[in-house]
Amino acid sequence: MCSGRLVLKVEGENLNKFLNMLIFNKILLKLYSKQDNTIIIGISTKDFKKVTKIAKRTMCKISILEKNGMYFYLKELTLWKVITVGVCIFILIVFNQFIFDIAILNHGSADILLDKKIKEKLYQYNIKPFMLKNKIDEKILERKLLADLGDLMWVNVKKEGARLFVEYVKREKAEVENKKGQIFAASSGVIKRIILKSGNLLVKEGDTVVCGQLLVDNKVTSKDGIEYYEDANAQIEAITFYTIPADFTIPLYQKEYISKATVPYIKVGNYEIKLKNIVTKNENCDKIKIKEYKLSPLAIWVGVYEIKRYKLKRFVPTLAQIKEKVKRECDQKFMSLTKNKKILNVLSVRTYIKMIKQKGEIRKIECQRNYECLEEIGIKK
User: Fold this and answer.
1) Closest to 258 in 3D by CA, of 306, 305, 301, 309
2) 10, 183, 230, 291: which has the highest count of C-beta atoms within 10 A?
3) Which residue windows are transmembrane per the record (predicted)?
4) Are strands 30-34 and 38-44 parallel, antiparallel or unpaired?
5) Check: CATH 3.30.565.10 for 98-171?
C-alpha cells in the first residue's frame, strides 16, 4: 500500500534479453522510451532487488532517474516535520469547534434595524463569536427568536464551518401591528412609578389616568425617524382609591348557649334512626351535624348530631363590636373586588360609620371604608 515507484535508466548491449526477463517475471510496469543501447522503464520499489539481479545477469547498468510514492515521502519525513503537521491538524480540529462569526441573512428587503435587534437578542442569549459550537442548539434558538421578536415570520439557524448563519423572513407590517401588544390602565389613579422596557410611553409620573386609557403604545419611532412595531413591556405603578359601602341591621336578641349534647344516628336511604333520644321540652335548640361516614356502597350512613340549647338575650352592641363588624364586612368586599388586580400595598384606610337609632337603640349601621393602594395598573391587550 505504501510502495513507491522508480523510473530507471538501463544501459547495455543485451537490452532485449533484459526486457524479456522482466516481462517473464511480471516486473515491468511501463516502458517510457527505447534507443539503441538505452531504455527508460518504470517499476515498483518492491521489485528493485529483482531488477538489479537481472541487470547483472544481462551485463546492464542501472541508474535511478525518479523516485515517486508514499514510501519515499515517509522516508524523507523528519521529527520536526511530523510535529509541525500534527500541530497544524490539532489547531484545525480545535478551531473547528468554535464559532468565529455570526451572519444575519434576510430573505426579502433589507432591514438593518431588525438585523440589529436579532444580534442584540443573540447577545442576550449569550450567543457570541469565539464560543463552542456544541453549546448552540439551533432548534431552541429558533424558537426563542420567534417568541421574542414578533417581527419574524420564519427563522432558520445553522452552523457552517466557523460561522453561524441566522436566516429569517420578516412578517408583514399589518400582521406585526396586530400581534404586538399595547398596555392599558386596569384602574384609575395617579401614576407613581414607571419602568419602561419596550414600546412608546404615552404618560409620565404624576399623571392622572382613567381605567382603560392607553399607557404604552406598540408603535415606536427611532431616532432616525423610522417607524416600527414592538411588543410593549412596562411596569407602571399608581396610587389607586377604592370606596366600599356596607350596611347591616343590629338584631334585638342574641343567642346565648347554655348546654349541648351529642346524638348518634344511622341513615338508610332517606330514613334517619336516632340512637339516643333527647327531650328538649320545647326549648330553643340548634341541631348541628358534626360528623357523617358512609359504611358501604349501599346508601347507609352513620353520624353524630350536636344539640345545643340556648336562650335569647337582649343584644346591645358596643362601639368596638360595631367597628369590628364594619371592618370585616368591608374588607371581604374589598378582597372580592380586587382579587384579579395587582395590589402591591394598602397605604391607608379611612372608615366612616353612621349609626341609625330606633326607639333610642342602635338598630341599623351604614358605613363606608376608603382604601388608598399602591397598585400595578398596566394590563397588556
Assistant:
1) 309
2) 183
3) 79-100
4) antiparallel
5) no
